[in-house]
Amino acid sequence: MKYASLVFRSLFRHRLRTLLTLSFLALSVFLVALMQGFLGTLDALTTSSASGSRLVVQDKASFTNVIPESYGNFLRAQPEIEAVTQFQWFGGEYKDPKNFFANFAVQKDTYLQVYREEAGVDLLPPEGVRDFLQDGNGCIVGKSLADKYGWKVGDVVPLRSPIFNLSVRLNVRAIFQGKRQSDEQALVFGLKQIQEAVPWMKGRVGSFVVRVKSSQDIPKLCERIDRNFANASPETLSMSENAFNLNMMKMFGDFGTMLHSITSAVLVAILLVTASTMAMTIRERSTQIAVLRALGFTAGKVMGLLLAEGLLLALMGGLLGLGLAVLAAKVTAGLASAILPWMADFYIPPDTLLLCLVGTLAMGLLSTFVPAYQATRKPIVEALRAL
Amino acid sequence: MSNSGNDGNAGSNGGNGGGNGGNGEPIIRLRDLAKSYYRGSLEIPVLTGIDLDIPRGGYYALMGPSGSGKTTLLNLLAGIDRPTGGELEVCGYRLNDFDDNELASWRATNVGFIFQNYNLIPVLNAYENIELPLLLTELSRAQRRERVLEALQLVNLTEQMQHFPRQLSGGQEQRVAIARAIVHDPDLIVADEPTGALDAKNAEEALNLIQHLNEELGKTIVMVTHDPKAARHAHIQIHLEKGVLDRTVEVHELPPREPLLGGRVPH
Question: Which fold has domain B7-250?
Answer without folding.
Answer: Rossmann fold (3.40.50)
